[in-house]
Design brief:
Blueprint (H helix, E strand, L loop, with lengths): L1 H21 L11 E9 L4 E7 L10 E2 L2 E3 L6 H13 L3 E6 L3 E7 L2 E14 L12 E8 L9 H9 L1 H4 L8
Parallel strand pairs: 1-7
Antiparallel strand pairs: 1-4, 2-3, 2-8, 5-7, 6-7
Length: 175
């Protein structure tokens, strides 16, 4: 039932976003609800990649971010996630699991923002991962989810806390 209402919410807001984007109106997350596809890339061994955001990012400077990108008109969720993984980390990936959509209310420079985030766990080849957007990210780190880098992007921190039971399945296996 929760998934049904999440998808209905997404459909309604995507249509509003498409209409405004096609007219070149407004800013995602501020003038209308932004839709983002978050991705949590892992190597299958319990390690996840995080990139350190720099001053050229829209917000959350100096914070570790697993990755995300606005949903582009005409892309499915999976197409969008895999496109963003290639753009940010220069590698292919396989979507293994989707998280239920969540609503993110944040504040940036005194401006309230509103995002709908749909996250995916994506398996990647660790050796292929590199920073592709060097103008936005200063460093790359691999960490297990039970030893996260700090400070974290607030959107990821919220997603992690809200859906911890799903994330904990990806903790490293104890011997």
């Amino acid at each position: 039932m929760f998934l049904f209402f999440g998808i209905l919410y997404l459909y309604i807001h995507m249509n509003q976003n498409i209409e405004k984007n096609n007219k070149g109106e407004g800013r995602a997350g501020i003038d209308y609800v932004g839709v983002t596809t978050s991705f949590y890339c892992h190597d299958g061994e319990g390690n996840f990649v995080f990139a350190l955001r720099n001053k050229n990012c829209r917000d959350e400077h100096g914070r570790w971010d697993p990755g995300a990108g606005g949903l582009d008109v005409g892309n499915t969720l999976e197409e969008n996630v895999l496109k963003e993984v290639m753009e940010e980390y220069g590698c292919k990936g396989v979507v293994e699991e989707w998280l239920p959509p969540i609503t993110l209310f944040r504040e940036h420079e005194g401006q309230k923002t509103h995002w709908l985030a749909i996250g995916a766990f994506v398996r990647v080849n660790r050796e292929d991962v590199k920073i592709m957007e060097t103008h936005k990210f200063d460093d790359l780190i691999w960490r297990p989810l039970n030893d996260l880098p700090e400070p974290l992007h607030s959107g990821f921190q919220y997603h992690f806390n809200e859906q911890f039971d799903i994330f904990k399945k990806y903790f490293p296996k104890e011997n």
